[in-house]
Amino acid sequence: MAMLAWNVRGLGNKDTVRTLQNINFKYKAEIIFLCETKQKRIYLERIRMKMKLDNAFYVELKGIAGGLALWWSSKVKLSILGEDKNFIDTSISIHGEEDWFGTFIYAPSYMEEKQKFWERLASLRKVTNLKWCIVGDSNIVASPTDKCGGLPFDHNSARWYYDFLDRTCLTEIQCKEGIYTWSNQRSNEAERLDRALSSLEWNCLFPRAIEVIDVAIASDHSPIILLMNGVLKRIMTDFKFESKWLVEEDCSQVVKKEW
């Protein structure tokens, strides 16, 4: 079982859609969360059907910005508990196992909205001893080691984030592959913004769960994958290099990183 979360920065580009399909072929995710889709429901539904996922829930974009999409397979029992432009809150049961809370986030980037977002997120659960997992774009650099280059480390944003962790008793799920999830693509600036959090009770339900960060292609954010059983089955495929990749500004960075 795998969950995939990705800030796609717009899903109107054919290369972005192809990249999403390739990532899902690799991980076989049964739950996919996409933020900043910048597309209407009718367009997103066509992509979902091509990816053969059975169910969907959407938070419509505002003007030409934002937009959230949550897709899941028939093997997953999922109920929507709440939503707004920054999150989708759900109750989930996989393969008939016991229910747990799953919250998929796209945190605001504006400073004046960040504190209110984390306070509202904490208010979703009135008690702490619950099976709860949060995954998505946190838009928070949690520590100086989570960034490379760019502006100085923002202590205020980090404080709001750690206040949230203290109130909810959540911790970050161990990341096995990758460090940074966002890059400027025009310099050496990079940050860890996307992450997965869980409660102790959720960890007891999925003790082998790990987070994996995949390569950033077609977006300045990397997709993050939550592997519930901690195992990634490698699928061997023929690698095909496309010449159009050479015109991408971040091509040389990706090659250097993976080499």
UniProtKB/TrEMBL annotation:
Superkingdom, natural source: Eukaryota
Domain named Endonuclease/exonuclease/phosphatase: residues: 5-221
Pfam families: Exo_endo_phos
Listed name of the protein: Endonuclease/exonuclease/phosphatase domain-containing protein
Species in which this protein is naturally found: Hibiscus sabdariffa
